[in-house]
Amino acid sequence: MTTNDLPASLRAAATPIVIVGHVDHGKSTLIGRLLYDTDSLQDGKLAQIVESSRKRGLTVEWSFLLDSLQIERDQGVTVDSTRIPFHLAAVSS
To answer: Bigger pLDDT: 35 or 82?
Structure first.
């Protein structure tokens, strides 16, 4: 999904956020948590990462939301990066 795919009312307010940092500094964890906090998860996705985290003896690992490959979870590193939209509530003044 790109900004052009959004309805006109949202397109004007869409602001890209870029998250950068060194390897293993928590970028995927931050993005995963933002997806959860903004209620931008697909149905069943939270249950998937809770189960995947439980199998590894971890608390909820938010970075698993970005991992599409099993090897990413196994090695604890996000390999495939992608664009993932999430929506914040509009702030009224």
So the answer is: 35
What was the pLDDT predicted at 47? 92
**Cα separation, 64 vs 32, whole angstroms:** 7
**CA atoms within 13 A of residue 39's CA, in its CB half-sphere:** 2
Contact between 35 and 65 (Cβ < 8 Å): yes
Q: Is 66 exposed, middle or buried (0-12, 13-18, 19+ CB in 10 A)?
A: buried
Which whole-number Å values give the CA distances from 15 to 6, 45, 68, in the listed order?
Answer: 12, 25, 25
CA distance 82 to 85: 10
Q: State which H helix or E strand residue 71 sits in.
A: helix 70-75
Q: Where are the domains of the chain?
A: 3-75
